[in-house]
Amino acid sequence: MILLLAGCSTPKAEFEDLPFSIVKTIKIENEQFTPSGFDFELFNDSLIYAYDIMNAVVFKYDSQGKLLSSNRFQKGINEVNLTYLGGLYLVNEDSVFALEMGLGNLLLLDSDLKIKNSWNVYRLTEEQFYTASKTQIINFEATDDQPIITLSATSKKYSSSQKEHYETSFLAIKLNLKTGESRTFFKYPQESSYRNNLFWGDEDPYYIFDNGVYYASFSFDPNLYSFIEDSEEYRLYTYDGKLNKKPTGVQFGMNQADFIRDHQVEVYYNQNDFNLISKNILNLSDRKYFIRAVRKAMKLGEQVGVSDIMLTNNFVHEYIFQIVDLYQKSPHVWKEYLLPKEYKNFSYIDQEGRFYFKRGNMDAEEYLIDVVELDVDGL
């Protein structure tokens, strides 16, 4: 089955076409829960670990989508009551981390998804930081019997509505789960649009950790940044694509209620969101590629409110697939394609370079993963 990623903007020639084929479709068994905010990760390209954000459920499937086990961590089940799951991190089949969104509870699960250990990362550090709005476990390493976890995190010194926050805050924390010792690193890059605009709610990057390098992509900053630990230097991959390059936010200090009432459509829907990235880098022979999906701006009129968007199906986002060669010298060329309407993002790239796109039919409570091969000859 051959499909085309066709360019969607006007004129059509602004985007190249990229053929790809669907290798297989995995149908996810779903009998007990209706996943709300369903997401997944893979372990060794075989086991699929999925999680339901709203119901705080973790699922384990085989490579065909057959449910092997599940466990819920809410409403007193397992003697815990998590609000929302922020994400999973797979160390091995018998060690799976699950992090609560916003409140800092961290669970370590075994191969049957039973709790092996638990921590509250805020209490460990005497509440010296927040886990970022995009709750993420970036990396885990165990050295000399010392369990070290790296989390997306921000400083508590200033409010996220204050300009000083973006001038001084760190963006990640490395925490020893045994001793509580921690250190922070990374700051908002000088080129970042977050130093000049307030976006209310999408202040933090999403990371991919690859061979000692942290790649960071922000929602409303089209550029890509790479960091290494113990250094204030970073590398900038300047975005040169066809989408808007200068996101517009609001003034610092604006009340969040005022923002939602008067500016949410302008900021969240009338410009592009660059934060939909996968869990890993695409490695092909001697090259590395960073790939992300972008929610394209709708360009709605001022008369359209958030309630209008939520209550109608007429407002449909288009999603753009972007590729940049990480070994290419500046200026960096970003290649862009339109994703078929069935897809919003891919969640995983396996060792063979195949992409895992999730799609679903909410009415039928059907959840599918398409495993896709791209024609990469033109990369």
UniProtKB/TrEMBL annotation:
UniProt-recorded name of the protein: 6-bladed beta-propeller protein
Source organism per UniProt: Belliella pelovolcani
Source taxon at top rank: Bacteria
